[in-house]
Amino acid sequence: xxxGRIIVGLIMENTPRIRCAxxxxxxxxxxxxxxxxxxxxxxxxxxxxxxYVVQISGIMCHSFESKPSRK
Length: 71
What we know:
This protein is an alpha+beta fold. 13% of the residues lie in helices and 30% in strands. A three-stranded antiparallel sheet has the order 3-4-5, with no helix packed on it. The relative contact order is 0.22. The model is unreliable at 6-12 (pLDDT under 50).
């Protein structure tokens, strides 16, 4: 249904889930320890970048931009 449960502190909130694979800033890296990255925010991580942003900041990623549609 496109909704995920995100933990903010001890409060569970229903929010639309950001799919990094659909974002133009998403990168798959060659780094075995940190295979996912975000070119907009300039980092690599072990987990999907949008999930990492929530864990670190407590808010949803605001850098999401849809990839251009394929034709």
